[in-house]
Amino acid sequence: MTKPLAPNATIGILGGGQLGRMLSVAASRLGYKTCIFEPGGDCPASHVANYHFQKSYDDADALREFAKSVDVITYEFENIPTSALDILEEHCRIHPNRDALRVSQDRLTEKTFLRDLGLMTAPFATVDDANSMAAAIAEVGAPSILKTRRFGYDGKGQARLKSSEDADTALADMAGAPALLEGFVNFSHEVSVIAARSIDGQVSCFDPGENVHKDGILSTTTVPARLTGSQRMDAVLLAGKILNALNYVGVMGVELFVTPQGLIVNEIAPRVHNSGHWTQNGCTIDQFEQHIRAVVGLPLGDGQRMNDVVMENLIGDDMDRLPDLLAEPTSAVHLYGKADTKPGRKMGHVNRVSPKSS
Amino acid sequence: MTKPLAPNATIGILGGGQLGRMLSVAASRLGYKTCIFEPGGDCPASHVANYHFQKSYDDADALREFAKSVDVITYEFENIPTSALDILEEHCRIHPNRDALRVSQDRLTEKTFLRDLGLMTAPFATVDDANSMAAAIAEVGAPSILKTRRFGYDGKGQARLKSSEDADTALADMAGAPALLEGFVNFSHEVSVIAARSIDGQVSCFDPGENVHKDGILSTTTVPARLTGSQRMDAVLLAGKILNALNYVGVMGVELFVTPQGLIVNEIAPRVHNSGHWTQNGCTIDQFEQHIRAVVGLPLGDGQRMNDVVMENLIGDDMDRLPDLLAEPTSAVHLYGKADTKPGRKMGHVNRVSPKSS
């Protein structure tokens, strides 16, 4: 058994958004202090953290000072500059590890890793220019989606091809960035597994949730998801396989397409995940606490679902509905403390809870 | 309808202990900022609050500055100096109100208030000196308990009388403080109702919990409590009566003795209550969020219990059992971030959750 960090130890969190905020709260529940590294001021996580390093990821001295002041480092987003990780890692452990970041920062590496594990992915081919684009369409076909290999999130950096005629426009959208053409998958619905792995290799998964997106952004997650018993088992097993292969420590979000041929892995995120927010009101130990438990070396909770939950994201103008949402007597509203509402901006979410149906 | 405080408003909290800490977390969930007023440094609530006024309750300037910097004031303990309240109230609303504090700060006022409401209390008589002590014993009898009228908590400021022979020792224990002799109540068990009332007068109660004390300190709270349907109804109705009589806004803890003759009110606490900690893992909206909702003018949650829970306080050396507690896969451990463990000190609690039985 690894010796866990003692209560009162400090957890460093890279990123000060809503995920960092909810990680901070979970850490406080277990008696830990948190220190946020985030260039932006008045960020959501800073409101509930002990310390806030408001510094740039280019500031080597600040990174060093941050790493020396904390007992373990984790993060709320995967696009952390490699140069920053190099400095941090000299002074402090980082969970999840570099392998997890390397795999998830690049769609090509990610897809190749998953395929090599024996898991199904959408067909894919790399695209760097008009020539490779033509070859990719020949291989993958259309309809398909062209995506930048790096730094995409919430549908950003993506262009749809209805047919090969859209190739030039889609390629122009990438603005010269290395890209991946992904073939169309004929899926009935998307589910995700929020999986956790402890330092000692214990794996625990939450019940898969069923996701609905709007405009490329997650809109709702519903538990229980529409899955057969064997699909549910498959989902959990393949998530475990991914975590074990990476010697992963922490929580990971694994997005899956449900098809008649089986489950196809869409993408993985090496962090707590929006589609796991339902666990806050559906489980005794939620994804945020599960992640904290993993990175400090504590045993994991069992992930058992106690209630049915529908999680709805509150995006931009959805905040206008806040008075109605707050008046729903069995719904838990979670707000992120962001000062300004903007279109497409995640402002909060609501978990609608009902007694467990199955 | 009262207009609620907008998200991003700031809630001032008097007191920086574990209750303030958990109130801060609940406030953050609803998008509010918090500002703690607490003379002690590195206090539990400051770890998860936006601001910490580390100032004395004698510091009129600090109190004024604090009151001006927040949008509403609430508190985690009832023994706030009247002089401080006078200053604060000039600049900012305080919920729950002065009446609630006046009643609960003095056991005589409290018992008289409850009796005047038509509720049952233990027999009581005031004790200031040897003469009134003799009269009180003649009226109330022995066994009985002598309690200071003010500033008692967790069994402090109490002396038991097995018979009238213990009168002198008990009186000496009060060190000249005004006291109350309370007659012995032959009760089978103690329950408490965590009740909430909104600014608009909406009342919502959580399911009563059954309390077990050790050495005068709460040890466990279990839901569901052993109560008949009509006792449960009585408990909730009398709590509502108390809140309405005080035009109360916020959460109150109402401790009740269960006797064959009915429910006897032991004491009330005008704040979130240790015996309501189970709601964190038993309800969609817990007592801390319910209190925040009330004081900012939001509608209340319905208090519906989703699970069975046994809450156990972790006091002093109980922290030695932490590794075992953290390894229980369906138990939620809540720690308060206190640096030093001391005998009798509340360090955290654990909520053991199981599916709802009734």
Automatic annotation (TrEMBL), chains A, B:
Its EC number is 6.3.4.18. It holds the Pfam family RS_preATP-grasp-like. It catalyses: 5-amino-1-(5-phospho-beta-D-ribosyl)imidazole + hydrogencarbonate + ATP = 5-carboxyamino-1-(5-phospho-D-ribosyl)imidazole + ADP + phosphate + 2 H(+). It is an enzyme of class 6 (ligase). PROSITE patterns: ATP_GRASP. ATP binds at residues 107, 147, 152-158, 182-185, 190, 213, 266-267. This is N5-carboxyaminoimidazole ribonucleotide synthase.
